[in-house]
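ok so for the tutorial part 2 we go from a plain amino acid sequence to predicted C-alpha coordinates. step 1 is just haveing the sequence, like this:
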Amino acid sequence: MKKDVAMWAGIFVVIGVSTFLASFVQSSTFALMGARLARRVRMLTLTSLMRQVGFLTALPTACSISHPRFLLMWPGRGYCMSTHQFVLG
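step 2 — the prediction. this is what the C-alpha coordinates look like for a chain of 89 residues:
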Protein backbone atom coordinates (compact mmCIF):
# COMPACT_ATOMS: atom_id res chain seq x y z
CA MET A 1 0.00 0.00 0.00
CA LYS A 2 2.75 2.49 0.89
CA LYS A 3 4.60 1.63 -2.33
CA ASP A 4 1.48 2.41 -4.36
CA VAL A 5 1.06 5.74 -2.59
CA ALA A 6 4.71 6.66 -3.19
CA MET A 7 4.42 5.66 -6.85
CA TRP A 8 1.28 7.74 -7.42
CA ALA A 9 2.76 10.68 -5.51
CA GLY A 10 5.88 10.46 -7.68
CA ILE A 11 3.78 10.37 -10.85
CA PHE A 12 1.78 13.37 -9.60
CA VAL A 13 4.99 15.33 -8.93
CA VAL A 14 6.42 14.45 -12.36
CA ILE A 15 3.20 15.52 -14.07
CA GLY A 16 3.18 18.79 -12.09
CA VAL A 17 6.80 19.61 -12.94
CA SER A 18 6.34 18.77 -16.61
CA THR A 19 3.16 20.88 -16.75
CA PHE A 20 5.00 23.81 -15.16
CA LEU A 21 7.87 23.54 -17.64
CA ALA A 22 5.52 23.23 -20.61
CA SER A 23 3.53 26.26 -19.43
CA PHE A 24 6.72 28.28 -18.98
CA VAL A 25 7.99 27.41 -22.46
CA GLN A 26 4.60 28.14 -24.01
CA SER A 27 4.28 31.52 -22.29
CA SER A 28 7.84 32.51 -23.18
CA THR A 29 7.51 31.66 -26.85
CA PHE A 30 4.11 33.37 -27.03
CA ALA A 31 5.63 36.55 -25.57
CA LEU A 32 8.54 36.45 -28.02
CA MET A 33 6.30 35.89 -31.04
CA GLY A 34 3.92 38.64 -29.88
CA ALA A 35 6.82 41.09 -29.54
CA ARG A 36 8.11 40.20 -33.02
CA LEU A 37 4.64 40.56 -34.51
CA ALA A 38 4.09 43.94 -32.83
CA ARG A 39 7.46 45.17 -34.10
CA ARG A 40 6.63 43.99 -37.62
CA VAL A 41 3.22 45.68 -37.58
CA ARG A 42 4.75 48.94 -36.31
CA MET A 43 7.40 48.90 -39.02
CA LEU A 44 4.88 48.14 -41.78
CA THR A 45 2.58 50.89 -40.52
CA LEU A 46 5.39 53.42 -40.32
CA THR A 47 6.65 52.44 -43.78
CA SER A 48 3.17 52.82 -45.24
CA LEU A 49 2.68 56.16 -43.52
CA MET A 50 6.02 57.48 -44.75
CA ARG A 51 5.23 56.28 -48.26
CA GLN A 52 1.92 58.15 -48.20
CA VAL A 53 3.44 61.35 -46.83
CA GLY A 54 6.21 61.12 -49.41
CA PHE A 55 3.61 60.73 -52.16
CA LEU A 56 1.68 63.77 -50.98
CA THR A 57 4.70 66.02 -50.67
CA ALA A 58 6.36 64.83 -53.91
CA LEU A 59 3.48 65.77 -56.22
CA PRO A 60 3.77 69.18 -57.88
CA THR A 61 0.47 70.75 -56.88
CA ALA A 62 -0.86 74.25 -57.37
CA CYS A 63 -2.96 74.30 -54.22
CA SER A 64 -2.30 73.74 -50.55
CA ILE A 65 -5.14 71.25 -50.09
CA SER A 66 -2.77 68.34 -50.60
CA HIS A 67 -0.67 69.33 -47.60
CA PRO A 68 -0.87 66.54 -44.98
CA ARG A 69 -1.68 68.96 -42.15
CA PHE A 70 -4.71 70.24 -44.05
CA LEU A 71 -5.85 66.67 -44.63
CA LEU A 72 -5.61 65.99 -40.91
CA MET A 73 -7.76 69.04 -40.16
CA TRP A 74 -10.31 68.24 -42.88
CA PRO A 75 -10.42 64.49 -43.56
CA GLY A 76 -12.13 63.49 -46.77
CA ARG A 77 -11.86 66.92 -48.43
CA GLY A 78 -8.47 66.77 -50.07
CA TYR A 79 -9.25 67.16 -53.75
CA CYS A 80 -6.68 68.97 -55.84
CA MET A 81 -6.06 69.46 -59.55
CA SER A 82 -2.54 69.76 -60.88
CA THR A 83 -0.43 67.96 -63.46
CA HIS A 84 -1.76 64.80 -61.77
CA GLN A 85 -5.41 64.48 -60.91
CA PHE A 86 -6.06 62.56 -57.72
CA VAL A 87 -8.70 62.26 -55.07
CA LEU A 88 -7.83 61.82 -51.42
CA GLY A 89 -10.18 60.73 -48.70
